[in-house]
């Protein structure tokens, strides 16, 4: 409770704004794959490519977004991206052709890739080091509280058959942006500092390129994200297409809600467990559980069995993502936090290859050969395990990443 009392007002604004904006976006974006497949007749591979387009743009944009926040200040970068995001959601609602969804999802990825690392850098800057783990995970909790209610509301709004929910996402982004305008003007945070030296984009790239622990961790997380991305791309299409599952869209909404509830319930005890070890070990354990979960999706048609696998998958998700921000924060060099958090946008490569590979496999094997479909996806995800093991070994040898229990003073 003492930690919560010391949370900066801007940090609270970001956390609360994240809750409501994520609630609004989860009414719409998760159902996009189902809408494209069932309402527009788009093939699974093209749908996967559309979903992947968001991450494809975000790969490069996130680094430059983080760098721009270091270079020009977090406030202007944050505000421009959130208001632009609101316009993108309106564009989704007005889309009527496949190419429009490609363009809108690319712009969606651009806005998210610029906004997210900048907001996390602000959270880090306004929070004492000993309290950062709590703050990063409060933000993660806010995301998942939003995702508990968003899909339920989206299902009632008919998001799998209509685009009207994107207007709600636009409104939430607009209100979030207006609240940030007020809070950032009152507290005078997020403006560029004239006291610190200006770092060029080449210098920022150079620092990251020489950070071997960070780069290997990045590759391992990319493959972990490729497995995680199946939850919002291949799985909803598989359930919508499967003759063994009635009301696939409704069932997927239930999966999304269960996923978010499990995150909220298990996040705190899993964080307490993860604090005893290095962040990379938590990410490694998460990758392993996600890989196992993807494989076991092919072994049951029981709805309760599938929901049980969702619980296991979600535990893996929490282990992966609750420590990712802490992993980056511990490695980030002074004056380059935005660039480091932005470079984590390269994990979006996983969100590109994941949905695209899943779509190709789904077109190839359909719903009749799930062992080949999900087995291939599980192997792809598990390829990240050797990388993460290497990072753990290197971090112990070189003390590049301080164990969580020694970092009391995420």
Automatic annotation (TrEMBL):
Main localization of the protein described in the UniProt heading: membrane
Domain Major facilitator superfamily (MFS) profile: 10-393
Domain of life: Bacteria
InterPro entries: MFS (IPR011701), MFS_dom (IPR020846), MFS_trans_sf (IPR036259)
Gene3D superfamilies referenced in this protein's UniProt entry, alphabetically: MFS general substrate transporter like domains
UniProt xrefs under PANTHER family: MULTIDRUG RESISTANCE PROTEIN MDTG (PTHR43414), PEPTIDE PERMEASE (PTHR43414:SF1)
Alphabetic keyword roster: Cell membrane, Membrane, Transmembrane, Transmembrane helix, Transport
Coiled coil: none
Localisation per UniProt entry: Cell membrane
Entry membrane topology: Multi-pass membrane protein
Transmembrane segments: 12-36, 42-64, 76-92, 136-159, 165-184, 212-231, 251-270, 277-297, 303-328, 340-362, 368-389
Name of the protein this chain belongs to: MFS transporter
């Amino acid at each position: 409770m003492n930690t919560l009392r010391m949370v900066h007002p801007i940090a609270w604004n970001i956390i609360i704004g994240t809750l409501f904006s994520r609630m609004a976006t989860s009414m719409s974006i998760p159902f996009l794959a189902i809408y494209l497949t069932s309402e527009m007749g788009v093939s699974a591979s093209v749908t996967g490519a559309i979903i992947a387009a968001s991450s494809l743009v975000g790969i490069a944009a996130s680094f430059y977004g983080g760098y721009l926040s270091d270079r020009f200040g977090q406030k202007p970068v944050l505000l421009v991206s959130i208001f632009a995001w609101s316009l993108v959601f309106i564009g989704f609602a007005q889309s009527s052709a496949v190419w429009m969804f490609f363009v809108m999802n690319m712009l969606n990825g651009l806005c998210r890739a610029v906004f997210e690392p900048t907001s996390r850098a602000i959270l880090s800057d306004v929070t004492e080091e000993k309290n950062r783990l709590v703050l990063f995970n409060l933000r993660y909790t806010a995301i998942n509280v939003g995702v508990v209610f968003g899909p339920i509301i989206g299902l009632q709004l008919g998001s799998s058959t209509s685009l009207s929910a994107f207007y709600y996402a636009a409104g939430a982004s607009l209100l979030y942006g207006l609240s940030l305008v007020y809070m950032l003007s009152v507290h005078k945070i997020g403006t560029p500092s004239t006291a610190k030296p200006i770092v060029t984009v080449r210098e920022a790239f150079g620092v990251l390129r020489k950070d071997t622990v960070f780069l290997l961790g990045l590759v391992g997380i990319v493959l972990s994200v490729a497995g995680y991305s199946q939850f919002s791309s291949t799985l909803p299409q598989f359930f919508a297409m499967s003759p063994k599952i009635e009301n696939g869209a409704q069932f997927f909404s239930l999966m999304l809600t269960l996923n978010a509830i499990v995150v909220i319930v298990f996040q705190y005890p899993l964080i307490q467990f993860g604090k005893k070890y290095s962040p990379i070990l938590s990410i490694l354990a998460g990758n392993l559980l996600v890989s196992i979960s993807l494989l076991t999706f092919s072994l049951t048609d029981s709805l309760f069995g599938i929901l049980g696998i969702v619980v296991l998958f979600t535990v893996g998700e929490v282990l992966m993502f609750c420590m990712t921000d802490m992993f980056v924060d511990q490695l980030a060099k002074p004056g380059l936090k935005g660039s480091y958090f932005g470079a984590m946008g390269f994990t979006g490569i996983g969100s590109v290859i994941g949905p695209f590979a899943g779509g190709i496999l789904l077109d190839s094997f359909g719903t009749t050969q799930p062992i080949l479909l999900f087995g291939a996806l599980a192997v792809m995800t598990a390829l990240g395990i050797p990388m993460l093991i290497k990072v753990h070994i290197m971090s112990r040898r070189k003390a590049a990443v301080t164990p969580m229990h020694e970092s009391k003073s995420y």
